[in-house]
Amino acid sequence: MNRSSEWLFLFKRDLATLRKEVGGFKSPDLLWETVPGISNPAGNLTLHLCGNLRHYIGGVLNNSGYARNRDAEFSLKHILPEELIQTIDTTEKEVESAFNQLTNEQLQAQFPAEVLGKNWICESFIIHLYGHLNYHLGQINYLRRFLHSNQ
Question: Regarding the domain delimited by 3-149, which CATH topology (the fold level of the hierarchy) does it fall under?
């Protein structure tokens, strides 16, 4: 069995959760609010997650041509939930395209770019990306629940 299909299942599942979280904010304005101790609102975290996955999985692994603007992931504000969901949809398509072409041999090969000052085995870096996705997904969930409880 190709392990990339297992990774695809997990990423698709959690991107669906991200989509549900973004759609679950009672007001579009709440996507751009934060609470003490958390510096980034859910909207920016969503843009950051999508930019990260589109860059490393779509662009680096699959040569999608995506050009990342990391600063914009944190500086853009007040994008409508529908637009954020479209960005998640695009991200999912790029992730799916990459994993559908990735072989077990490629998963065990070196990742095509140095990241964080390190050369990674591809599957090890995918584990890193998956952890990053879930870390911020948890923050988004927390923000949604906290902001809704204080309205």
Answer: Four Helix Bundle (Hemerythrin (Met), subunit A) (1.20.120)
